[in-house]
Amino acid sequence: MVIGKNGDMILKIGKSARLDIEKFLDSKVNLKLFVKIDDDWRNKSFKVKEFGYFRK
């Protein structure tokens, strides 16, 4: 997953998810996101599949 420069994309994803959850629950929530780093994951077929992507 590309998190973007300075984490911009992960911030947008988190904010959007939090707003959706708050709307669904009709309550404020504190959403915590965790980023796990796995070097060279794009070149590991099993990791690519694990993340829901596939190679052609």
Task: Provide a descriptive summary of the structure in words.
The two termini are about 20 Å apart. It is elongated, with a radius of gyration of 15 Å. The protein is mostly helical. It contains 2 helices and no strands.
Main β-sheet description: none
Q: Which range best describes the helical content: under 10%, 10-25%, 25-40%, 40-55%, 55-70% or over 70%? A: 40-55%
Total strands: 0
Shape: elongated
Strand-and-helix sequence, N→C?
HH
Rg: 15 Å
Helix/strand class: mainly alpha
> N- to C-terminal separation?
18 Å
Strand residues, percent: under 5%
Runs with pLDDT <50, length 5+? none
Summed over residues and divided by their number, the pLDDT gives a mean of: 81
Number of helices: 2
Observed structural traits:
56 residues, mainly alpha
Give the helices and strands, then pairings.
Elements: H1 8-25, H2 45-50
Please sum up the structure shown:
With 56 residues, this protein is mainly α. It contains 2 helices and no strands.
